Amino acid sequence: MGKEPFIVGNWKMNLTLEEGVEFAKSLRNNLHGKNKTISGICPPFIFLKDISRVLEGSNICVGAQNIHSEKNGAYTGEISALMVKEAGCTHVLIGHSERRHLFGEIDSFINAKIKTALSVNLKPIFCIGETLTEREEGRTEYVVKNQLKNGLLGIDNNYVEELVIAYEPVWAIGTGKTASPEQANEVHSFIRGFLTDGYGKDIANGVYIQYGGSVKPENTRELLAQPEIDGLLVGGASIKLEAFLKIIDAASIQ
Ligand code: PEP
């Protein structure tokens, strides 16, 4: 699509604070003035403030891995959109398959979180994707379409442009099985088509659609060579500095 690739690492529940801060410092030093690829990391909540300080003024953004849909209130153990913003986040992962499948998050909750994130100027990285059974039953497009339709319900056109959508087939997350570049591109085209039908070509083309699922340095270039893949959401390989740097490097020479 001719955009600078947007590469985001999802650290999940990994690393210590010290390791995370060291990682962020090395990332910053290694990327400084070197390439134009836009990158970001999503550390655990408790690291956000320290890591944001390290990355302040760089072109590496910081995202949270989750927020609650309400802005404040009696939600013990939850974190609000404004709290992560205050900790330095510009982005937030919403609807990651681990949240959907391990914590029972449903589309209406995800939709409410997207709206709350947008209302405080936090960019959602809205994750969608089918399970292996759904793919094998030929229901990939049906599932993805419903996740998009329900997740984006009631969101104004001008806000849709702010979104990053991450297509992450559940069967490819953390499994070592990557969707082939063609398989991924096919679903990305479907997503782009959905956005075009609903919001028009300009908005649809402006939305970043990332692929996620066992991304590694070796498959980065071929995934990003696909016309509809605008970036990558990286899990396992994003907590290994060398691998993550290689992914960003490979992305910047597309
Ligand atoms: C993810 O958790 O978003 C992800 C894509 O994980 P992995 O790269 O480990 O498959």
Describe this entry's structure for a reader:
With 254 residues, the chain is α/β, with parallel strands linked by helices. It folds into two domains: 1-65; 85-211, Aldolase class I (TIM Barrel, Alpha-Beta Barrel), CATH 3.20.20. Helices cover 45% and strands 15% of the residues. The protein has helices spanning 17-31, 48-55, 81-86, 97-102, 107-119, 132-136, 140-151, 157-160, 181-199, 201-206, 217-224, 241-252; strands spanning 6-10, 38-42, 60-64, 91-94, 123-128, 164-167, 208-212, 231-234. The chain has an eight-stranded parallel β-barrel, surrounded by six helices. Strand 7, helix 11 and strand 8 form a beta-alpha-beta unit. Helix 1 packs parallel to helix 2. The longest helix has 19 residues, at 181-199. The protein starts with 5 loop residues before the first strand and ends with a helix. Bound molecules: phosphoenolpyruvate.
Brief sketch in words of this structure:
By secondary structure, the protein is an alpha/beta fold. It is built from twelve helices and eight strands.
Q: What is the topology?
A:
Layout: E1 6-10, H1 17-31, E2 38-42, H2 48-55, E3 60-64, H3 81-86, E4 91-94, H4 97-102, H5 107-119, E5 123-128, H6 132-136, H7 140-151, H8 157-160, E6 164-167, H9 181-199, H10 201-206, E7 208-212, H11 217-224, E8 231-234, H12 241-252
Parallel strand pairs: 1-2, 1-8, 2-3, 3-4, 4-5, 5-6, 6-7, 7-8
Helix pairs in contact: 1-2, 7-9, 11-12
This protein binds phosphoenolpyruvate.
CATH architecture tag of the largest domain: Alpha-Beta Barrel
CATH topology of the largest domain: TIM Barrel
Helical percentage: 40-55%
Count of discrete alpha- or pi-helical segments spanning 4 or more residues: 12
